[in-house]
Amino acid sequence: MAVTARKSASGLEIRELECFLALSEELHFGRTGERLYVSQGRVSQLLRSLESRIGARLVERTSRRVRLTPLGEDFLSSLRPAYDALRATVEDACVAARGVSGRLRVGFQGTADDRFMAVVGLFEDRYPDCSTEITEVPLSDPFGPLHRGEVDIAVVLLPVAEDSLVLGPVFSRQPQYLAVSKRHPFASRTVLCAEDLADSPLVGVRGPAPAYWREAQAPTRTPDGRPVPAGPMVATLQEGLSLVAANRGAMLLCHPTAEYHHRRDIAYVTLTGIPDSALGLVWNHDHENSRIRAFAEAVEETLV
């Protein structure tokens, strides 16, 4: 039977939407009722009310199965992100009401030096009810932990061009270094220019990192268009440094990393003619909250 009555959208009830969302996942009235702690009859009542409000069927129910109608599928695709955003807004308001608290998982690509750890200390002193966890972000997968929800915020090497990510404060802009073996001809130099990259294989990054990001860390051409020889591909910084020490190729490094990973068998030579390296604080747009904003503010105050 078609739904003919129409209710005003102004009287929309969140419980009707929650019921529809649960039913779209369970596709079973009984399990939906158990999930929502209501009777199966109440699930049917809430669904009928929502369908009456919309003016058309959202769910087809037979003796054998439950499935969404084409309109129900379209409604679900629009409702889910809006509902998630509404929940996030309410959660943010709750956090704001009781202050910044909970847990903030901070990912760091490269080396969390003393300046960055000072930011962590400032944040924890300012918000004692919020604890921080520092985890390493793989060189080969700078954005994956954010996409997968493994960290809340991350410090990564630029560039960042992911549509779903927010680039916050950018800091530690400094000339790049070329790491070479002490046996490499470049080891006796104090400064190199970008065109010199055409004269030595360059260690690259393999893995799920996007192509534009991998190109920035290991360019395939010099600014004048000369090809840069491809060296071995690595997934971790330590792999790269080991191959550099073995004179298998050179590797671009940012200043903090070169400074922290000083080795007697590697020379670190300043490289000119290419953009400075920089670190950026990045988070998922859909997961932004008061903890992330407070941490970004601490970074802005201290490092930028």
Automatic annotation (TrEMBL):
The chain positions of domain HTH lysR-type read: 12-69
Species per Swiss-Prot/TrEMBL record = Streptomyces blastmyceticus
- Say which family it is in: Belongs to the LysR transcriptional regulatory family.
* Protein name stated in the entry: LysR family transcriptional regulator
Per its UniProt record, what PANTHER family does this chain match?
Answer: HCA OPERON TRANSCRIPTIONAL ACTIVATOR HCAR, TRANSCRIPTIONAL DUAL REGULATOR HCAR-RELATED
Where are the bilayer-spanning segments? Answer: none
Is-annotated flag, keyword Oxidoreductase? Answer: no
* InterPro entries in the record: LysR_HTH_N, LysR_subst-bd, WH-like_DNA-bd_sf, WH_DNA-bd_sf
Task: Kindly state which keywords UniProt assigns to this record, in alphabetical order.
Answer: DNA-binding, Transcription, Transcription regulation
The UniProt record lists the keyword Transcription regulation: yes
Q: Please indicate which superkingdom the organism of origin belongs to.
A: Bacteria
